[in-house]
Amino acid sequence: MSAKHTGHGLKTTARADELTRLKAKPDSDIDYSGIPELGPDFFRAAKMLMPEAAQPVTMRLDRSVIDFFKKQGPGYQSRINAVLRAYVETVGKAEK
Predict the structure, then answer these.
(1) d(Cα 65, Cα 42) in Å, to the nearest integer?
(2) How much is the pTM?
(3) How far is Cα of residue 25 from the mean position of the Cα atoms in its chain?
(4) What pLDDT, in 10s, does the model give residues 20-61?
(5) Nearest-angstrom CA–CA distance, 59 and 88
(6) Bridge partners of residue 11, in order along the sequence
(7) What is the dihedral of CA 66, 82, 78, 10, to 10 degrees?
(8) Chain centroid to CA 95: how far?
(9) Which residues, listed in sequence order, are joined to residue 4 by a DSSP beta bridge?
(10) DSSP tag of 53
(11) Helix residue ranges, H only, 1-96
């Protein structure tokens, strides 16, 4: 079985073929019976959460770190931010 690296991790050819088949499937063939509809109560209680505005900064990072994130495709700066956010949240919990 062959595998290729994509922006979403390692995918086997079989997995890629399955995703292609599912994308071609019409919505009318999807079984929603196990998924409850979201009613008015859900939407009354829902809260709109806007992401925090990103602040441009200049940082010095190892070339290998930048290359690692860039190889995963577009959005590498957002992925670096997500890793840093996870670190902050984890360390912040440990310090409390």
Answers:
(1) 42
(2) 0.50
(3) 23
(4) 998 999 989 988 899 988 889 998 999 888 888 989 999 999
(5) 17
(6) 4
(7) 70
(8) 27
(9) 11
(10) P
(11) 13-24, 40-45, 63-71, 76-95
